[in-house]
Amino acid sequence: MNIVVCIKQVPDTTEIKINPETGTMIRDGVASIINPDDKGGLEMAIQLKEQFGAHVTVITMGPPQADIILREAFAMGADRAIHLTDRKFAGADTLATSYALAGALKKLDFDLLITGRQAIDGDTAQVGPQIAEFLDLPQVSYTQELKFDGEKTFTIKKATEEGYQMLAVEAPCVITVLSSANNPRYMSVGGIVDAYQKEVELWGKDNIDVEDHNLGLKGSPTRVRKAFAREVKPAGELYEVGTDEAVGIIISKLKEKFIL
Amino acid sequence: MNIEEYKGIYVFIEQREGVIQGVALELLGQARRLADQINDKVVALFLGNNISDKAQSLIAAGADKVICIDAPELEQYTTEPYTQAICQVIDEMKPDAILIGATTIGRDLGPRISARVKTGLTADCTKIETGENNELLMTRPAFGGNLMATIICPEHRPQMATVRPGVMVALEADSNRTGEIVNYKVNFNPAKFKVKILENVKEDSNKVDITDARILVSGGRGLGNAEGFELMTELATTMGAEVSASRAMVDAGFMGHDRQVGQTGKTVRPDLYFAFGISGAIQHVAGMEDSEFIVAVNKDKNAPIFQVSDLGIVGDAKQIIKKLNERLTKK
Amino acid sequence: MNFSLTREQILFQQMIKDFAEKEVKPLAAEVDELERFPYETVEKMAKIGIMGIPIPKQYGGAGGDNVMYAMAVEELSAVCGTTGVIVSAHTSLCCAPILENGTEEQKMKYLPKLASGEWIGAFGLTEAGAGTDAAGQQTTAVEDGDNWILNGSKIFITNAGPAHVYIVMAMTDKSQGTRGISAFIVEGDTPGFSVGKKEKKMGIRGSATCELIFENCIIPKENLLGKIGKGFGIAMKTLDGGRIGIAAQALGIAQGAIDETIKYVKERKQFGRAISAFQNTQFQLADMHARTEASRLLVRQAAHKKDQKLPYSVDAATAKLFAAETSSWVTNKAVQLYGGYGYTREYPIERMMRDAKITEIYEGTSEVQRMVISANLLK
User: Fold this and answer.
1) C residues 17-36 near B, CB within 8 Å?
2) Is some CB atom of chain A closer than 8 A to the CB atom of C117?
3) Is B101 helix (H, G, I), strand (E, B) or coil?
């Protein structure tokens, strides 16, 4: 059984602090990590490896410093790692990113392609399904659990707003996974010791099946017109009023904030 | 691609078991506002099985036209049938824009369509406006909400966006509105329907981790008796929120340690944090000060909690909870 | 001279910090309060190879180096002094002597299960009458056919009880003084061996510190570790390695105290501002940092020398002396910066101060370290 997992290196956005005066992000000292949903996907793949002896390939599209997440994947149990990197990929929106990744994935044989549901920096949740479309494969997103019958069929538990659905799909297929699906294992010490002994394959645009005009900024139908900080939280208001009036103020403030 | 040919702001009308979802009406409302700004039409894309009788309500909600695709293949949502249907519409009708609710369905469907049609999709928008060239300006949060970005799709059509539920505002239903209802037939390719639904399960989530809760109603010493605890719980139920506590209430035995917020409890970051009768000692504040919006009620106007709250009320917490609960239940 | 960590060490540091934060820290207060040995943590550590970091892969270990091992003890100790010493005593005082002195059979028999964490290890040298005067061993080992018979007792043995493998020193020839001491491997289920009373301690309260009692304890001949009469030398060399571990533990406790204090002083307000705004607080933290950084470099130097197979005994003693006294000094200052709240168990800082003290005492008191260092300087 062959499994490919797409993983992305992201800043740990849960640790990002905002400058209280300007509202801009303070990125210094924020660690780079494997995107949590992707890590859930990787853990799922390694569990399938333990169950079925599957071969697990990880692939990332990213700058040179993304190498470390491939090493981390090795130390968790991945068998093969591909680093897709080329300056021509820079500036890509989700469509151009998915196109490039699909170009690389077309060169691989797999029964199951796993991506994380969404990255905690881009927050789009688009790349997984777009890759599936480019590869002309069926997709199941919001995967919480996956069972394989050992032959061809995957039974998948998909999270919905009301609960969940059980779906069935045959290999090959694409799933996007939630970080809540499992508790990813730590790297093993032995795995860490060997992580840099293994080869990471470097692939550029010439190694894969793509056309230049669909890559990078040129290949991106969407553009960022403006990026800006959120409003700085102003100092809190304090009211010393009667109960009725107080409740009125609370309700109107909550409505203002779209909480009600 | 000749952009000029593309017309109409289309809204994907999400329905589950025949029930039109709130987000669809919100998007119709916003589409109406945008269409009026750029002198265009609002078209509702209504997919499902045996849903035609509901099409009229979409006109009342703001649509000029409803493309009603009523087919057994669309009974329950799976990616491929819905994608095929909408892509056929796009191919034939050439919409200028398509808005989709950013639900589990919308975020599965939107990207698949955008990749098939090779156009731009902007995810989870919290604001949509029109620009100087009548293009859509789609604003969305990134970096876990720490950064906002306004996205455009200048050279591709349709401009697509998934939109966060609960942000846009639906119009008041107006049964006097008129519009066109078109029953649209899709030529499906069933060979591509590879995903099978085995079962649908609705869950009642009883056990909630307070760190996952969107809204927390938290009580402290100022509420520390059975009556206070009951009031809190009622308010929480009304608001669909979870209850939590400072150490005082946990020590008094009203709540388990798993609901304690603070130094020796949990750190929470809900969208809304109510601090009722909580003084705001550092051990507690350290666990909740990153909440998006903090409402504090305490009878001591010098209580340190007011230094971190966004809205502070000096008053009797129990009275305020009671009244707030009354007013909210009435709605 | 390269002060950088290797790529593997950087990756390892990322993992162990994450592990300590998520798996060890949440239990630390309870482990201390209930004086409970954290078996579940040992199981988790075992699963990922933390119980056998510097043991070569051929013996079931992770094949890591001593710098990594020291880093592990440091990061674990930063959140829980107890967990740090469990790993340190197990690795340096039991795995290491077997690795460095054992026969191939002994290594194959004991190391894989110790490195995998299936077995926990301990080391018994100290006796009621033999602390700093370690040579005053009373426990005896008498040859009897194919066996050795051990009689006597040990006190203050770390991991005693949870451990299955004990490296025990005993007197085989009283007339020879230190050259009459030999080292033995004793398995926990040996008849005649029992674990005695558990000490109630000031700190590292979750660590099991007990007596070992040998009453005609019969162990097979093959369980002699190293040569007869070489036990004292083995013990001293073992303690050299152990000192790196304890120095790392002390370093971790100091760093943990600094990290917690920084968090606290930014939050705590007096006189209208956070106390971090006051120069006293700032200067104290600066001093705490400088000394802890110095400890770190000494620990890493000793570990690095051991990895390079260079003599490291004086470096280890220097690291332990300095790091231990630093951690007591730092944690004491930290409690002071916390003020009244720091004296309560609501905050972890008082536990860190209680945990720090033992690092100045066990595996060779600071006075012993001074003896080792000065003997080397004046030779």
Assistant:
1) 29
2) no
3) strand
In eight-state DSSP terms, residue A222 is -
Report yes or no for ipTM above 0.90.
yes
What is the extent of the structural domain holding A210? 2-219
Residue C287 to chain A, least CA–CA distance (Å): 23
Residues of chain A in contact with residue B114, where contact means CB-CB under 8 angstroms, are 95, 126, 130
Partners of residue A71 in chain C, C-beta under 8 Å: 7, 11
Residues B264, C29: C-beta atoms closer than 8 Å: yes
Structural domain span for residue B135 = 3-192
Return d(Cα B314, Cα B301) in angstroms, integer.
6
B177 and B266 inside one domain: no
Average pLDDT (A216-240) is 87
Mark whether B124 and B244 lie in a shared domain: no
Residue written as tokens 């990332």? A60
The region, left, alpha or beta by phi > 0 then psi within -120 to 50, assigned to residue C339 is left
In a mutational test of the B interface, the residue from C21, C346, C350 whose CB has the highest number of chain B CBs within 10 Å is C346
DSSP characters over C98-157: HHHH--HHHHHHHHHHHHTTSS-EEEE--BTTBSSSTT----EEEEETTEEEEEEEEEEE
What's the average model confidence in pLDDT over C87-115?
98
Which of B311, B318, B329 to mutate: most A Cβ within 10 Å? B311
Report if residue A88 sits inside a domain: yes
Q: Is residue C363 among the annotated active site residues? A: yes
Q: Mark yes or no for CB contact C346/B286 under 8 Å.
A: no
The predicted structure's pLDDT at residue A29:
84
Q: How confident is the model at residue B178 (pLDDT cuts 50, 70, 90)?
A: very high
A123: distance to nearest CA of chain B, Å?
A: 6
* pLDDT at residue A40, as a whole number: 97
The CATH number covering residue A37 comes to 3.40.50.620
The shortest CB-CB distance from C62 to any of A68, A71, A193 is to: A193
For residue A234, what are its two tokens?
A: 């102003």
| C269 chain-B contacts, CB cut-off 8 A | 282
**Secondary structure (DSSP) of C315-338:** HHHHHHHHHHHHHHHHHHHHHHHH
**Residue B121 domain flag:** yes
pLDDT digits (tens, 9 = 90+) for C169-213: 999 999 999 999 999 999 999 999 999 999 999 999 999 999 999
Residue B207 has a pLDDT of: 59
Q: Which of C260, C267, C270, C338 is the best mutation test for B, with the most CBs of B within 10 A?
A: C267
How far is it, in rounded angstroms, from Cα A102 to Cα A41? Answer: 18
Contacts of A163 in chain B (CB under 8 A): 200-203
Subunits that touch chain A (at least 3 Cβ pairs < 8 angstroms)? B, C
Which residues sit opposite A190 in a β-bridge?
none
Assess whether pLDDT exceeds 70 at residue B86: yes
pLDDT (0 to 100) of residue A16: 78
Whether residue B206 is predicted with pLDDT greater than 70 in this model: the reply is: no
Query: Mind listing the pLDDT tens digit for each residue in B147-165?
Result: 889 999 999 999 999 998 8
What's the pLDDT tens digit per position in B225-253?
Answer: 889 999 999 999 999 999 999 988 888 88
Answer positive or negative: Cα dihedral of B207, B213, B215, B219: positive
Q: Does residue B304 carry a pLDDT above 70?
A: yes
Report CB contact under 8 Å: C267, B286: yes
C348 band by pLDDT with thresholds 50, 70 and 90: very high
Beta bridge partners of B161: B99, B122
